[in-house]
Specification:
This protein is of the alpha+beta class. The chain is 44% helix and 26% strand. The strands form two sheets. Strands 2, 4, 5, 8, 9 and 10 form a six-stranded mixed β-sheet that branches. Strands 1-3-7-6 form a four-stranded antiparallel β-sheet, with no helix packed on it. A hairpin with a 5-residue loop joins β4 and β5. The protein starts with a helix and ends with a helix.
Length: 241
């Protein structure tokens, strides 16, 4: 990091020398603003670095825009001849009436990662502030593809819908489970009631048989055999249920 800042200082000195030889002097003041950081994916065809400026007390002539970059190697002077070729590696677009200039880097590669510095100068002015450079934009070219804003929004919406769907399925599952549990409980209660009713019927039949036997034997005590018959009927019913 110290090497980068040290190189940036050296580059600034070189740029100031270039601007010094470009033009000379009036009461002119320039201020420049650049985006500090810009990150792109290596598959991106091109990237544009913006530079805005404002002037005060400067000549009426059009200012000159200059671009420099400081990367892993030596500092580079970019677009000294304007870079107007649309097929070139670098293209400079100027909207001087709106105080805007930009540098487009085509065919983005990993070695395009660098600090890009914008410079504005009035060649006819000898005022030191008539030639200025911005703080620079650090361009970083990444290997991992970055998701676009539209794709990110789509994924967020998709995840939200999926969450709602999962919650709805869970609610339906819980309701159906409770309903099935209540149905089984009601069925068990109904079966139990039926069994009790059938047992009562068999008991009545056994009692009727017992009474008939008792009448036939002229009020004699019921034999053990008849009692066993009644008990057998009840035991048979119990086994079935």
């Amino acid at each position: 990091m110290e090497t980068v800042y040290g190189g940036k200082i050296i580059l600034s000195l070189k740029i100031n020398l270039i601007l010094f030889y470009i033009g000379a002097a009036g009461d002119c003041n320039i201020s420049i603003s650049q985006q500090p950081y810009l990150e792109v994916d290596y598959t991106q065809e091109a990237v544009t670095i913006q530079c805005s400026f404002s002037t005060a007390g400067c000549p009426l002539e059009k200012p000159m825009s200059l671009w420099f970059r400081y990367g892993a190697h030596l500092p580079e002077n970019l677009c000294m001849h304007g870079c107007r070729n649309e097929r070139g590696k670098f293209i400079v677009h100027e909207a001087l009436a709106q105080s805007q200039v930009s540098l487009t880097v085509n065919r983005v590669a990993f070695n395009d990662s660098a600090i890009y510095i914008c410079g504005i100068a009035f060649p006819s002015s000898k005022e030191p502030r008539a030639k200025r450079t911005g703080e620079g934009t650090m361009l970083v070219v990444r290997e991992t593809k970055l998701l676009g804003k539209k794709l990110q929004s789509f994924l967020i919406v998709l995840l939200s819908l999926l969450s709602v769907y999962i919650i709805a399925v869970l609610v339906i599952f819980i309701v159906l489970s409770k309903s099935k549990s209540n149905t089984l409980r009601n069925k068990e209660t109904e079966d139990s009631q039926k069994k009790k009713s059938a047992r009562r019927i068999f008991q009545e039949i056994a009692q009727e048989l017992y009474n008939k036997r008792h009448v036939e034997t002229n009020q004699q005590p019921v034999s053990v055999k008849y009692k066993k018959d009644a008990m057998q009927i009840l035991s048979m019913f119990d086994k079935k249920n």
